[in-house]
Design brief:
The chain is built from 8 helices and no strands. It is an all-alpha fold and about 180 residues long. The protein has one domain. Helix 2 packs across helix 7 and helix 6 packs antiparallel against helix 7. The radius of gyration is 20 Å and the shape is flat. The chain starts with a helix and ends with a helix. It is found in: Cell membrane. This is Oxidoreductase. Its main location: membrane. InterPro entries: DoxX, DoxX-like_oxidoreductase.
Length: about 180
């Protein structure tokens, strides 16, 4: 039993010195699981042609402000400048923040922004789209609720990056070594 405990202590000590492992794996998993999801979601919000980055699609407004757009008769011109700015910011965030995380550039700030994005996305799904059936519940026997279960894991992954940073294979590390 002593030999087993000694082996365990040796392994644990090595893991505690592997500071690079957690943020590197977190960025890899973000890229593998969420990067394409967010990029595709952002693409659905772009308007026609190159100017679509400045003129979001009707679908963008429908995704972000579903009840407001419905009340306006699906006429985006009837919405305020505030609505357009929020839709543009949300659309750009779906492109910029994930790419920053994968590159490891301004990672802590980008991950914090993504946590805010996921929170707003979840609240919009619940209150704007009425997706209460996807809400789920914690401490139940079902681990697959889209909002409480799945997005809690997304936020945890992002929290690892907020706390630990991007790890050694990142632009953050390269920039820090040049400035220090």
């Amino acid at each position: 039993m002593t030999a087993l405990l000694s082996l365990y202590a040796t392994i644990v000590a090595k893991l505690e010195r592997a500071d690079w492992l957690l943020p590197t794996v977190a960025r890899f998993l973000f890229a593998a699981i969420l990067l394409v999801y967010f990029l595709n979601s952002g693409l659905t919000k772009l308007g026609e042609g190159f100017s679509g980055i400045w003129t979001p699609s009707v679908g963008a407004y429908a995704q972000i402000f579903p009840r407001v757009l419905e009340a306006a008769g699906y006429d985006t011109d009837a919405l305020s400048f505030f609505h357009k700015i929020i839709v543009l910011a949300g659309t750009w965030a779906e492109f910029i923040l994930p790419v920053l995380i994968v590159l490891g550039l301004l990672t802590r700030l980008a991950a914090l922004g993504m946590i805010g994005f996921v929170t707003v996305q979840s609240l919009t799904d619940i209150y704007g789209h009425g997706a209460t059936d996807a809400l789920g519940a914690w401490f139940d026997r079902f681990p697959d609720a889209v909002i409480l279960d799945q997005r809690a894991l997304w936020v945890f992954l992002l929290l690892v990056l907020v706390i630990k940073g991007a790890g050694p294979l990142s632009f953050d590390r390269a920039l820090a070594s040049k400035s220090g």
